[in-house]
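Same chain as my last thread, 463 residues:
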Amino acid sequence: MTTMDEELLPATRRALTHRIAVAQSEGRAPSLVAAVVRGGRAVWHGARTSVDGHGPDENVQYRIGSITKTFTAVLVLRLRDEGVLDLGDPLEKHLPGTGAGEATIAELLAHTAGLAAESPAPWWERTPGSLRPRLGDVLGEKPLLHPAGRRHHYSNPGYTLLGALVEELRGAPWEQVLREEVLEPLGLHRTTAQPEAPHAGGWAVHPWADALLPEPVEDLGRMAPAGQLWSTTGDLARFAAFLAGGDDRVLSAESVRDMRTPAAPAEQADVVDGATYGLGLQIQHRDGRLLAGHSGSLPGFLANLTFSVADDVAAVVLANCTGGPLLGAVGADLVRIVAEAEPRIPEPWRPLREVEPTVLELAGPWYWGTHPFALRVMADGLITLGPLTGGGRRARFRPNGDGTWTGLEGYYAGELLEAVRRPDGTVSHLDLGSFVFTRQPYEEDAPVPGGVDAEGWRGIAQP
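reply #2:
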């Protein structure tokens, strides 16, 4: 069964259907459902199933595993935005006595706290959460394997700690806080901690035979903030739109941008793969585009949410099998198919509402030594400064209201840019974190560090 919105071209819809059909067939998944988001809403839903008759649609629940971590991260960022905590705070400040209290909240979010990947045996995904009623049962006697902040080491217990932190600071169970602060405001009514019909059953597929084995469904207890949730492609499509653009009822656009900003040191293999981790979001460079999102798995289920902010396209893919289709690749392909077949149409160019003369006079070419740069004044009130040609350091700057600007990204993030004026009010030069930019290369009357040779520019005398 496949339902489609007419906004996508027929060829695009067919390509999407073909991609998930190949994934379900070659991956031998009992069922696979998918959705594509564009412009902040779902524009395509598709499903493939081994069962004759009515197949799963966008309202059928699947277990989403570690995509749950992204929901938990949203709750922590809300606490940050309210001023209840700072991401640089050690966990001990707000949740004492865990044995991992030296790790900061940011390190827990980015999986750089040095914690073990899993809780002590038996494996938590296939055993009742009642076996681990206390945080100590989740962390074990030696929770730390690596120095905090030194490397990215994915940790399920780390997100258990973050869930416990939310409960401590909100004074309510993690599930209740999630429902009241995220699920209800975003209209995610089919996202729940326990399965609610209609929902898919989880299966293991025999590796050497086309045979199935039902997988157990366990309540994860304390580990719930790391992987408990059930959801649908319909709900996750709305969640993907939120992660791309924000929603002031939950998190601002700036805060969700923080989530998808790299926050973990990359391992060598990660550099090769073009992958890193933000605050509750996986980030990768694939097919020439920057993708963010999260994958998930629990016995009987696979899940993936992937989005490209630049292309304004997101994809959700869910399957009810323990192994098989590589849903991360499928999600990235669904984004690519739409982005390439129907590229985003840019907003119309619009001029400034009003022109500030003291800012406009800064526009144009500047030189850092002999390197030409261009400063542009943008309609959104920002200015940009970057090399006139080729690559190099470039950034946007926001005005501070006092004639200075602060860098927003890259090498100049947080650095102060100031237009230094002469006594008569004319601009002498730009000062950017001690770098002097002049209107001419090594301008004579500008305070170029080291000075400018008094004889000026010259040629080489011929014999």
